[in-house]
Amino acid sequence: MIYEIWAEGFRATGESGRAKYIDTVAADTLDEAVAIAVSRLPADRQKLFKRDQDGMWTEWGCRVFGSEDAARRSFG
To answer: How many CA atoms lie within 13 A of 64 on its CB side?
Structure first.
């Protein structure tokens, strides 16, 4: 399956940002696709990504999704 990996937007402490594109990846699962996308990033940016115990990936606290629509629906 092909996943477009996106992080949701944010609004905090007077700052805000819209959903942002990370990468497009072919993988069997979203979890695998995000792991591949993160591995392709520069090391300093990789450090911003975490996988929670429930399996949800985040980038600097913003949830990561397998499509632009899902990321924008969450917080666009």
So the answer is: 26
